[in-house]
Structures are given as structure tokens and as C-alpha cells.
Write a structure and sequence with these properties.
Layout lengths: L2 H21 L20 H17 L4 H38 L3
Helix pairs in contact: 1-2, 1-3, 2-3
Catalytic activity: Exonucleolytic cleavage in either 5'- to 3'- or 3'- to 5'-direction to yield nucleoside 5'-phosphates
Keywords: Cytoplasm, Exonuclease, Hydrolase, Nuclease
Subcellular location: Cytoplasm
Length: 105
Amino acid sequence: MTTDDSESATIDQAAAATASDSGDAKTSTTASADPNADVADLGYEQARDQLAAIVARLEGGSATLEDSMRLWERGEALAAHCQRWLDGAQRRIESMTSSGDTSDS
């Protein structure tokens, strides 16, 4: 299985979990947990690659409306996760460069 196939399978699994959670009012509270909770465990590159795959699928226009909505929701979670990674990296860089600036004075 290639990396693209693996990412597509992960996206499909997350979309299927969302479908099963939102389609049945009788689901238990454990079954209705956030289907995108796994996003928090992804590294930046993994999240970015999944997000790119979702964008490509949405732009392809072949997904049903329900699938498109699930993909969109996962994409939003992935984008927010990537932004948190980038914000953290920026803070680290700023803290390293600002500590270096005070020694020059």
C-alpha cells in the first residue's frame, strides 16, 4: 500500500466513523465521540498530507454531498491542527531569536 493509499484509507475511515455517528440517534456516547479525535495524534506532515488529499477529493467533485460534508469537517480539523503546529514553531523561533537579541545590548 502506498502512502497515498494509506492516507486515503485513513480519510475514508474517519468519514465512515462520522457517517455512523451522525446517522443513528441511538448511538452510545462512546460511539458518538469526535470522529476526528485522531487528528491530535498526527504530526504536521501527516496532517498536511491528509488535508491535501481531502482538498483533491473535494475538488474532484465525485463525492456525494454527505461525504463532502464529512471530508470538509475533517479538513477543518486538519487545518486547525496544522495551524497549531505552525503557531508553536513560530513561538519557538521567536523565543530563540528574542533571547539572542538581548545579549547584543
